[in-house]
Specification:
This protein is α+β, with helices and mostly antiparallel strands. Helices cover 49% and strands 9% of the residues. Strand 1 (10-14), helix 1 and strand 2 (35-39) form a beta-alpha-beta unit.
Length: 235
């Protein structure tokens, strides 16, 4: 877990089931950007280790190391910041529409997912919800189900006026790349999608047809076979 050696290409610190990391992996795949994958176990708390803190003091994934001309590297964190860097440095294919209004709508959908839904499923909030419920893991799962269902109901209504073939219009965008991991999380916590037919249709279509999202899905990552970790948290 060291970044002391010279970074020759992009290095992504990731965890297989991290939805934030899935977003970044999808963009890397879409733009065909080569990178080295380094796994960080969230369930064993590896992100809080002193070794990883030397890589990223924030102690989170995804973290991207970017090589510099002087043989060193820059460290980027937060999925949307990393994705913005990738879009700026590898603009094609773009993850945004060219029309400014449509671009703004994509960003609005992205924010509704990235800020309004996904953070509530992080291990920290879930563990705290369980703690407030007397240590009940079931109550923590109910917490997730409530917030996902409530926010999905709102998102379903929003997408009625935005979606075409894809989440916003007829072009694959960052909205799609953020939607899929969130729906994956919803299914993981047994949220039924029948009440959200548009979200369900988009999810199933994207996960079946978009190679960049398929390549980046959790089960296709090198650290996905560590099933022991899934049992440690009790979820």
């Amino acid at each position: 877990m060291s970044a002391s050696s010279a970074v020759q290409q992009l290095v992504l610190y990731s965890y297989w089931r991290s939805s934030c990391s899935w977003r970044v992996r999808s963009v890397l795949a879409l733009k065909a950007i080569p990178y080295e994958y380094r796994a960080v176990s969230l369930y064993t708390g590896e992100q809080h280790s002193e070794a990883f803190k030397t890589v990223n003091p924030a102690g989170m994934v995804p973290t991207l190391l970017v090589p510099t001309k002087d043989g060193k590297h820059e460290t980027l964190f937060e999925s949307l910041a990393i994705i913005d860097y990738l879009e700026q440095t590898h603009p094609q294919p773009s993850i945004y529409p060219t029309d400014p209004i449509q671009r703004a709508k994509v960003i609005a959908v992205v924010e509704s997912i990235v800020s309004g839904i996904q953070p509530l499923q992080n291990l920290g909030p879930m563990n705290k919800a369980a703690e407030f419920a007397g240590g009940s893991k079931a109550k923590a799962v109910e917490w997730n189900q409530y917030w996902i269902s409530t926010r999905f109901a709102t998102l379903e209504g929003i997408l009625q006026g935005l979606s075409g073939r894809y989440t916003v219009g007829d072009q694959l965008t960052l909205a799609d790349i953020c939607l899929v991991p969130q729906v994956y999380n919803a299914l993981r916590y047994n949220v039924q999608l029948d009440s959200y037919p548009l979200i369900k249709r988009l999810y199933e279509q994207l996960l079946a047809t978009e190679e960049c999202i398929i390549k980046a899905k959790p089960e296709n990552q090198v650290d996905s076979d560590d099933f022991k970790e899934r049992k440690l948290a009790g979820y």
